[in-house]
Amino acid sequence: MNWISEWALPKIKTLFGGAREVPDNLWHKCPSCEKMIFQNDLEANLRVCPHCGHHMRLGARQRLDATFDEGWQRAELPKVPLDPLKFKDQRRYAERLKEAQAKSGMEDAVLVGHGKIEGERAVMAAFEFAFMGGSMGAGVGEALVTAARLAVLQDAPLIVFASSGGARMQEGAISLMQMPRTVIATQMVKDAGLPFIVVLCDPTTGGVTASFAMLGDIHIAEPGALIGFAGARVIEQTVREKLPEGFQRAEYLLRHGILDMVVKRGEMRATLARLIRLLHAERRPGAPAAA
Hints:
Number of domains: 2
CATH superfamily of the largest domain: 2-enoyl-CoA Hydratase, Chain A, domain 1
Shape: globular
CATH topology of the largest domain: 2-enoyl-CoA Hydratase, Chain A, domain 1
Strand order of the largest sheet: 3-4-5-6-7-8-9
Distance between the termini: 68 Å
Structural class: alpha/beta
Largest sheet: 7 strands, mixed
Strand content: 15-25%
Number of helices: 10
Mean pLDDT: 91
């Protein structure tokens, strides 16, 4: 397979007399440069490759931990029907949901929290791509509506880390209904005069891109993130043209005016805090009144 599994691991086992089992996830291979990274180093670096800077996918809980100051709180989300259409393909939808919940420790694909970022109040919603591809069903719609209401209640900016394959097919039209619901949720925040910041992570596609994810006051993306509606192959077949190099990647979209900035993960927290201070300055406690 590679020198780690074929040579290094047997040597380690021999050294310790076979008394201990060496964990299988001790090392991780970067999907971009294919170099091996010690798992603890990778997690400490927020799952960014120290060799080539490739940004790997990060879980919702890890995103909130890395962005909020210590002491942030998780918001309780409304319960939704687990399987409204009694959908079944190769497996029952209810079974897929239970499996995803057990693996992720989440009820659905979005985690909502509130706290402070470098002392600035904020409400954040983060997608968990590992939960059925971060697909948007009724649970995700409820989470984003709840996040918007909480932001208005706390007079705080709303930040959404989007990472999704789009609508959740197992919920049919109910899933598509979440597109206008999330648009209305973002409008609630804007009507209250609060900043709405969207961070587009890899990947952000389909119905999520076609709804709230492109309605932010500020659009940020992580380096190399795939962002679009339809897949590149579908677009090429439709327009019958070869797409440019890097099409639908964050850097391409930045050059063409779709994004405001591309920010490395290690700089995201400081960037968000700076934007909140700029956009929300007049509403902070103790701030001077506008002339």
